[in-house]
Amino acid sequence: MKIGVLSLQGDVIEHINHIRKLGHIGIEIKKVEDMNGINGIILPGGESTAIGKLLREIKMLIPLRDKILSGLPVWGTCAGMILLAKSIEGETDGHLKIMDIKVKRNAYGSQINSFKRNVIISEISSEPQPLVFIRGPVITETASDVKILCKVDDKIVAAKQNNMFVTAFHPELTDNLAVHKYFINMCN
Length: 188
Description:
This protein has about 190 residues and is α/β, with parallel strands linked by helices. It is built from 5 helices and 12 strands. The strands form 3 sheets. The chain has a 7-stranded mixed β-sheet. It has a 3-stranded mixed β-sheet with strand order 5-6-9. Strands 7-8 form a two-stranded antiparallel sheet. A hairpin with a 2-residue loop joins β10 (about 145-150) and β11 (about 155-160). It is globular. The protein starts with a strand and ends with a helix. About 40% of the residues are buried. The mean pLDDT is about 95. One of its GO terms (molecular function) is pyridoxal 5'-phosphate synthase (glutamine hydrolysing) activity.
């Protein structure tokens, strides 16, 4: 299976390494043509405003949006969640605007407020998952067909809607492969 990782900024190589550890092909997606033949795409953590600006500059925003709307499985981690959200608290503009969620940026504070928590996400594994939060967003509103997968401190930090999966945390920054395995199963 070939999984693309949007490679404009952020935790790219970490995701690719996890995909490879699971026996699949991880490739960097830097231009529209790179999306040909992939089974799924990860929108990594990083800076959502910078990634959104770059997607527009290289004319990749609409083709990526169209691929996802046509059924390409997508996983947005942290900044990727913000890119997918239909709305962002306190802002009028979004980016891809395709997942029926509203997000709040930096909901856990600044970089110095980063933390790690071990949480069982029953949809993913019966074992506790190490969740790493770095300036993480949270989901503040969802449409009725969005499945909430995980809450931390009563805040929604993982959800799924059709072919779209989002996490406010960074599984790529741990040695645990369960969340990547979950996404790869979505791509089958």
